[in-house]
Amino acid sequence: MISEESFWTEEKDAPLLNRNADHLTHASAEKAMQRAKGWVDLVEEGSSTEVDMSATCTDEASLRIFKLDAERTFKSPARREAMVDVLKILHSSVQDYHQGLGYIVSFLLLLLPKEETVRLCLNLHRKDKYVPGYWKAAPPAFVRDAKVYQKITAHYFPQVAEHTTKLCVVPEAYAQKWLVGLCIHVLPFRALCDFLEAFFNKGVEFLFQFTQGLIKTIEGDLLAEKDVSKVLAMLRLDASIYADDKTAAGEDKTPGSFFGQIVQEAINFDLSEVSIDALRAEAMEEMKIEEERRKKRDAELDEEDDEITFSDEEDDG
């Protein structure tokens, strides 16, 4: 899309470009698109993904959501239609939808044709290396990995874990944009491209590295803040807290270097002290116990309801 001259007039105010920070331009389009083609190669790992571009979605509720999300993303009808087309094809495999997938598809369509966007997303959905199960409407895979993130943070940054727990700041309130949405709308585009490339190269392990690189970078800010809304804004890297041109703490004073520093911290972060597989198993067991407790509570409530006699049920005689 970004190679089209009309894109820059028709989509200049598109919400998707809110964090572009002048990184993607018409002049830089060819270079950026070539880089994105390399991302497809990274996830396919030498084997081309077969794609049925005629696959579609017949679920009316999903189609309505696709249309609404496209309208929130692009200004022109043609680009909205392209986004919906890709989501319909992907629905035939995912059989569900999470808005995070819409974020990813819309960003990739800036740089890739529809078929290559589908191929890339299918690999992310199908391969254990990446994020299978994340794009369900209520994804247990995300809930599991949010718990894993909490456990990893408690190991490496116990003060932050304790602080956020005391404030009742739970990962479900902010981590979806990191994990499910792959930081679209979180990172300015320059840092986002580096983030995505590292993720496509290393897989889900890099997502956990990113969470720790981010916490390491903003640890001082988090520990100094007691306002829950501001802590959440920090964790989301909200532009109201961290402007797109914010510079890093060190010598690099390039506009936006703060976000590049987070990604570099993530790339360098050593997770060897923890086992993601073991922590996932722990999280799954916790989820199983929580579900059993929920079912027990529901059954008890049903029993209580059965014991209630309403006035219109009483025998007047």
TrEMBL record:
Annotated ranges, domain Rab-GAP TBC: 29-203
The name this protein goes by in its record: Rab-GAP TBC domain-containing protein
Species the sequence originates in: Vitrella brassicaformis (strain CCMP3155)
Gene3D superfamilies: Ypt/Rab-GAP domain of gyp1p, domain 3
Top-level taxon of the source organism: Eukaryota
Biased composition (Basic and acidic residues): 289-299
Annotated spans, Disordered: 289-317
UniProt xrefs under SUPFAM superfamilies: Ypt/Rab-GAP domain of gyp1p (SSF47923)
Molecular function as annotated in GO: GTPase activator activity; small GTPase binding
Acidic residues biased stretches: 300-317
Pfam families documented for this protein: RabGAP-TBC (PF00566)
